[in-house]
Design a protein that fits this description.
- The longest helix is centred in the first third of the chain and has 20 residues, at about 5-20.
- This protein has about 200 residues and is an alpha+beta fold.
- Helix 5 packs antiparallel against helix 6.
- The protein folds into 2 domains: about 5-70, no CATH class; about 75-190, no CATH class.
- It has helices spanning about 5-20, 55-60, 120-130, 130-135, 160-175, 185-190, and strands spanning about 40, 45-50, 70, 75-80, 95-100, 105-110, 115-120, 140-145, 155-160.
- The chain is globular.
- It contains 6 helices and 9 strands; from the N terminus they run αββαβββββααββαα.
- This is DUF5947 family protein.
- It comes from Streptomyces tricolor.
Length: about 200
Amino acid sequence: MTADGALARLIRSAADRAAEADTEVCELCAARVAEEHPHLYDTGAGQVRCVCRPCSVLFADGGVGEARYRLVPRRRLRLPPVDTGVLGVPVGLVFFVPRSDGRVTAQGPSPAGAMAWEVDAAAWQRLAAAVPQLAGLTPDVEALLVNTVRGLEEHWIVPVDDCYRMIALVRREWRGLSGGGRVWPAVEQFFGELTERS
């Protein structure tokens, strides 16, 4: 074998290992998952887990073992403007998640990840009475996603995995103190690509 052939094989091998490292796997059984794959909310860790379809059926919502995992739904619903100012959260890019224990959390993106606040539950109940779709949010796994930054009026009911994708996007694109020139166009594109689905 020539030196060129050995070098080419080494480069291909390194490329194959890098591609395998980039492949997502199920966080419960380690099987490879497709780009579009289900997610489970781990109630014990308070995190969303990437899973394969069989594990999403086997472990979700009281399947095998304790009811530790909840299936993250796929529903997206665009809402007319919602007056979230009554919730006392002073940021324009935020999502609100009602929790199983009755609390409501608000989270907004930052260069370091998610910032979190607890929202007054009574204020949330008043808002949900005024906007009936909010009363139907599935606790822990669905959120009200809001973007009023730069004159936009975007209000959506989305699965929480969409919210975490938005946080990762802001963290990846943020530059300097004010975000730089890439973050806000990327956020606008994120919202522009949201589509309603049931």
